[in-house]
Amino acid sequence: MTAAMTAVETRPSVGELLRNWRQRRRLSQLDLASDAGVSTRHLSFVETGRARPSREMVLHLAEQLEVPLRERNELLLAAGYAPVYGRRRLEDPDMSAVRSALDLVLTAYEPSPAVVVDRFWELVAGNRSIALLTEGVDPALLEPPVNVLRLGLHPRGLAPRILDLPQWRTALLTRLAREAHLTADPGLAALHRELAALPGGFDRRPPDGIAVPLRIRHGDDVLSFLSTVTTFGTAVDLTAAELSVEAFLPADAHTAEVLRRSRLPAPAPAPVPRS
User: Fold this and answer.
1) Superfamily for the 3-78 domain
2) pLDDT tens digits, residue range 186-197?
3) Is pTM beyond 0.85 here?
């Protein structure tokens, strides 16, 4: 028996994968069947391999389970169907509309810092104002691929300038842990383990307010930001679907005034997302 044959034989079936996603979402078969409008009996047959789901059924169940697009392709392959979600490089000519949209959003946020990150929190692009957040960091952390979470929480990165670092670390690591759980991505889980091991402490108290502000030292000053996230919610291309824009908006009038009076550096070339 060849290694290739063994790999095929040990690959999880579509039923096993769907069951894993259902359990990850903490849904019973009855819950999912009710949400999807199918019988519990049919869902049970699909999960146990007694029934082969149609392509449309695979996509329908994946939609109900909020399976990421990348993993929906894996479900389709496991069921014997071709993937439906393509993956193009951001620099490809037919992705020009996406690049233009990203440039437009990043420029619109200026003078507030904003970055585009991929699914793995690696920097895809940023506006000129991110220089305010990267000043003084170890140049090694700015070598591509730049991971913005590592950049923010590393002791040679932004971390020494962050006031209330334990609270900010807790907020970021909680979000990362949730993403690792929802996507079942081992890369995100590994990143969480790496960052959780960095110094900085944790704050187990519930956040005071709607959002946790990012308060950083800027010379002798203190600037306060609130972060927002923008995603391509209707994207059907994996590259676009896995991008998000993280913007840091002024949380008080003083920070807004400092940003308004700041002198923006010249634009820098953007790194390329990993495939």
Assistant:
1) lambda repressor-like DNA-binding domains (1.10.260.40)
2) 999 999 999 999
3) no
